[in-house]
Amino acid sequence: DADVTQTPRNRITKTGKRIMLECSQTKGHDRMYWYRQDPGLGLRLIYYSFDVKDINKGEISDGYSVSRQAQAKFSLSLESAIPNQTALYFCATSDLGSGMEETQYFGPGTRLLVL
Amino acid sequence: DQQVKQNSPSLSVQEGRISILNCDYTNSMFDYFLWYKKYPAEGPTFLISISSIKDKNEDGRFTVFLNKSAKHLSLHIVPSQPGDSAVYFCAASAPWAGGTSYGKLTFGQGTILTVHP
């Protein structure tokens, strides 16, 4: 079984709809991240969480919100989806305990299309 | 402001030859660098990393070189294999202000590597 899972893998929605992307991990890591990937722009950080009580905005958090329901679960919500949120979304985890030089591990991604 | 840049969108190499992927950065606070490989319909997978206290790190066919003065790193794949065909991202991180923990990665745009049989 995959260490980091994302649901759904693909989603088509309409402008103005609320949608939630979910991420679960079995790695036991404290830190979790949400990224989006757009063609030619690499991966950009949306939100990150270092533990259940710690949520922080990344570089492109406008239009998004997150919830850290448990150590293993981190959800990303689009309150009112718009077409320029069409992208590939990745969840990642890393281990706080390793301190220096952490490595992030990614889920398989969710492809979102907003019409 | 793109702090990590991969200026070559694509690279085509013959099987058995060397693949060299390049990455430049502008933030002098970056001191840990990673390469990720991404296949279609999959998430990025960690490939190799290097700390700023080193100038080279090797893992099998993969070697990463860091030139701090030029703010440049490169990934060498020798010999290249068709299964290496993927998108390669470089990423960089810096210590949190006043702290020792890392975590926030800044990614380059990616380079599509195609290895021809």
Explained architecture:
The complex is a heterodimer of chains A (115) and B (117). Chain A has 115 residues and is mostly beta strands. Chain A is 0% helix and 57% strand. Chain A has no helices and eleven strands. In chain A, the strands form two sheets. In chain A, strands 2, 4, 5, 6, 9, 10 and 11 form a seven-stranded mixed β-sheet that branches. A four-stranded antiparallel β-sheet of chain A has the order 1-3-8-7, with no helix packed on it. Chain A is globular and about 40 Å long. The mean pLDDT of chain A is 91. Chain B is built from no helices and eleven strands. In chain B, the strands form two sheets. In chain B, strands 2, 4, 5, 9, 10 and 11 form a six-stranded mixed β-sheet that branches. With 117 residues, chain B is an all-beta fold. The model of chain B has no long low-confidence stretch (mean pLDDT 91). At the A-B interface, strand 4, strand 5, strand 9 and strand 10 of A face strand 4, strand 5 and strand 9 of B.
- Find the structural class of chain A using helix and strand composition: mainly beta
Mean pLDDT of chain A: 91
Query: What overall geometry of chain B do the principal axes of the alpha carbons give?
Result: globular
- Residue stretches of chain A low in confidence (pLDDT < 50, at least 5 long) are none
Uncertain segments of chain B of ≥5 residues (pLDDT<50)?
A: none
User: Of all protein chain pairs, which has the greatest interface, and how many residues does each chain bring to it?
Assistant: A-B, 28 and 27 residues
Q: What order do the helices and strands of chain B follow?
A: EEEEEEEEEEE
Share in β-strands of chain B: over 45%
Helix content of chain A: under 10%
Quickly give the structural class of chain B.
Answer: mainly beta
Instruction: Kindly report the oligomeric state of this protein.
Output: heterodimer
Strand content bin of chain A: over 45%
Shape of chain A: globular
